[in-house]
Amino acid sequence: MIHLYYWPTPNGHKVTMFLEEAGLPYKLHGVNIGKGEQFEPDFLKISPNNRMPALVDDDPPGGGAAVSVFESGAILLYLAEKTGKFLPKDLRGRFEVAQWLFWQMGNLGPMAGQNHHFSQYAPEKLPYAVNRYVNETNRLYGVLDKRLADRQFIAGAYSIADMASYPWIVPYERQGQKLEDFPHLKRWFEAIKVRPATERAYARGQEFKTIPPTSEEARKILFGQTAAVVRGR
Ligand SMILES: N[C@@H](CCC(=O)N[C@@H](CS)C(=O)NCC(=O)O)C(=O)O
What we know:
About 55% of the residues lie in helices and about 10% in strands.
């Protein structure tokens, strides 16, 4: 059985999208990040960066002890390797996908995340910070739009590169972006949105009761973290 430590956020949706596409049985364990469950010692053992998602596979390929993986990009690679799906087997195809997966992990995710932070969550509106991240998100949407101009998916057939990027485009309005400005990205986005596995993945997220990051309780937990949170004091 696959155990997914999860909360319904873009990085969590990436993994349920894969699991639903592959038809793998899995159990969701909610990690309520607005309540501080990401700092529980047992969770930190499998996710030392106090972030979800994290995955534990009791039945890894080749048998043996359970395998635990944190970081959504590494989790997608693990699942692709386990199932032989959504990652080409040939070297060129595999690295075509890998470079776009890492592009999402190192660019679209962090920049859009800071965009959310300064546009929606920061207690003061700092125009420099808002503009910096809205513009950077806009640039990255442009990169993806150009990439998609002459292909259906980001790298060959539907792959973990698409699953990584899609959930970060879902909140485009909150990121100050208009999909109309990116016609190829819009076509790709709308095609993934109606995949039955995508619909099932997002429906699973509705089982969990989230706390808005702007609430006083969540704000104290999520923002202003220092090394003390992982040292347990
Ligand atoms: N690079 C990590 C980022 C994961 C991440 O930022 N998760 C957020 C929710 S989307 C989280 O767990 N936040 C908890 C916190 O900030 O304490 C990944 O892709 O897995």
